[in-house]
Amino acid sequence: MTELIDQTLYLKMYEQMLTIRSFEEKAIELFEHNLIRGNIHPCIGQEAVSVGVCSALRKEDYMLNTHRGHGNCIAKGADLKRMMAELLGRSTGYCKGKGGSMHIADFEGGNLGANGIVGGGLPIAVGAGISIQNRGTDQVVACFFGDGAVNQGTFHESLNLAAIWKLPVIFICENNQYALSTPIREAISISKISDRALAYGIPGVTLDGNDVRAVYTQMKGAVERARSGKGPTLLDCLTYRFYGHFTGDPGRGMTYRSKEEMEEWWGRCPIKRFRESLFREGILSEGKEKEIQIRVKTSIEEAVRFALESPFPDPEEAIQDLFY
Amino acid sequence: MNFRELTNTEAMVEALKEEMTRDPSIFIIGEDLVAHGGIFGQFIGLPEAFPGRVIDTPISETCIVGAGLGAALTGMRPFVDLHFADFTTCAMDEIVNQVAKIRYMFGGQAKIPIVIWAPDGAGLSAAAHHSQSLEAWFIHTPGLKVVSPCFPYDVKGLIKTSIRSDDPIIFFMHKKIFSRKGPVPEEEYVIPLGKADIKHPGTDVTIITYSIMVLHALEVAKEMEKEGIRVEVLDLRTLWPMDWEKIAESVTKTHRVIIAHEACLTCGFGAEISARIQEELFDELDAPIFRVGAYRVPIPFSPPLERFVIPGKESLKKTLYNLFGKEIDSK
Question: N or C end of chain A: smaller count of CB under 10 Å?
Fold first, then answer.
C-alpha cells in the first residue's frame, strides 16, 4: 500500500519537475521573442528542490519565495495560466500585471509571495510562524532563499528569532553555488552553510539538492518537527542553475563558470536522475512517460494561449490596489 | 461626553487595551516591552493584562518589522514598537520594500494591518541617533500612511483607527509629549485617518503644523492675539493621507500660510504642502508661503546647539513677524 502511494507520489513529482522545466524553457523562448519584458531568472536545474520541498507541504502551509521562484510557485500548486499571464504583464495574472516574474503571490494557495530583495522573505517567514503559533494551527512555513541570502543580516536575525521561539519555519537554502557571479566558496569561510545552524541551536543538514527523494525525505522530517512544535530546521540543498543568473546574464553565466563544472552538474541533472531511477524501479514506463509528456506539453501550451489571449491591464489600473 | 485628563501615554495604553480586548489578533512586538511596559512606559500594564500578547524580542529591528509583516499577512494585527524613529533605518528594507509594496505589488491580494510605532523628535539631548524626525521619508513612500498626533484625545482616537486599518501605518509620537495631559472622553470613540483639526481658530494667518510644533504654534497664537494678529493653528494629526480640504479651507480664509515642523526644512513635508498650495490656491495668497524647520545638520548633543538647530516658539514668531513685515525683537 505505501509502495503504491509512493509510486503515485513519485509520478506526480516527476510530472511537476517536467512541468517546471518546460515552463522555464517556454518562458525563456517568450522572453527571446520580446513577449516577456524585463527579465526572468530561470530555475532550470533546481527542480528537485522545489518539488521535494513542496511535496511535503499541505495547501494551507505557507511559502516564501525568491526572484528565481517559478519552480517553487508551480510546486506549491499555482495555476500555470495565471502565472504565465503575470509574466506577460496581463490583467489575468496573479498580480494583475503589477508584480511580474519576480513577484508572484497566491495567497489562497499559501504562497506569500516572491521577493526581489535577496533575503527579504526570511523575516516575513518568521512573522508567519508567529502567526501560526498565536492562532494555534498546525501549519508550517517553507522559506526559500538562495546561497546569496545567507550573508544578509536577515538570515541571522530570522534564524535566531525562529530558533528562540521554536517557530514552525523550515529555512530552505537553494544553494545553486552562485550569488549572481560570486561563488559560494568565496562568500563564506566554512565548507557547509548548514554548519551555521549550530550557531542558532537548530538542526541543519546539507543535502544533495538534485536528488528529489533526498530533498523530500529531509523536508518531511523537518516538517514533522515543525508541526510538532519542535521548531525550525535549516536545509542546505546543493544544486545548480543551468541557465545564467537571469536572461540578461552575458553568455548565460558562462563568463564566471567553467565548461567542466557545467558538464559535471549536467551529469547530475535532477530530472535525468529521477527519471532513470523511476525506470529502474519499474515505476515509470515509456507509455506512462509519453502520457506525462503530453499532459505537460498541453498544460504549457494552454497557459501560453491563455496569457497571449488575455488583455493588458488598462493604464489607469496602475493607481488601483492602493490608496494614494 | 464625559472628559477626564489623561497623559498621551495613558491615552495610548487605554487605546491599546480597548483594542486588544476587542480583537484577539492584535499583539505588540518589540524590544524591552515586558519588564517596564516599554522604555517610555508606553505599554505599562499591558504585558500583565495580555500575557503572551506583548512580545519581547532580541535587538533585531530588521526582523521585528519583517515578522510583523509576516504576521499581518497571515491573519494577525501586529503593533510593532521600534524604540526610536531613528531605528527605522535598520528596518528600511522591510518598511519600504516589503510593508509598503506588498499589497500593491501582488495585485491587491494582501491586507497589511500593521502599525509601526516609533517615538521621534529632539529636545532631550539624545544626540544624533535618538532625536530625528523622519516622517518625510515615509510620506514620500507610496503604500504607507503616516500619523503624528500631539494631544491625548488625538493619540487615543488615532491609535485605535490605525490598529483597525488594513493598510500599514507609521505612527510617530514626539518623545517630549508623552507625559503631556489633555482631556479624553470616557466613552469610546475613534478619529478617522486623514482628518486635520483646527486647534486655534484665526483669520489672519494659518500655521499648518503637527506633532510638537502644534504646542509652539498655540503659544505663538496666544501671544499674537495681544498684537492683534489672529493666528489659526491647523494640526494635521495624520500626515498621509493629507487633509487637503481642511488646508484649502483655512488658506482661503486667512490668505497667509506658515508651515512648521521639527524635521529638517529641506525636502520636509512643508515643501510638499507649500507646493500644492501655490499650485492650487495661488490667487488666494496675500503673501509668500513661509516654512519653519530644523537646520540641515544632524541633531547635536549639547543643549545650546540642539536648541539652535531645531525650531521652536521663537523661530515661529520670527517667521510670523517676517511675514507681516514687522520689526523683529531680537532680545
Answer: N
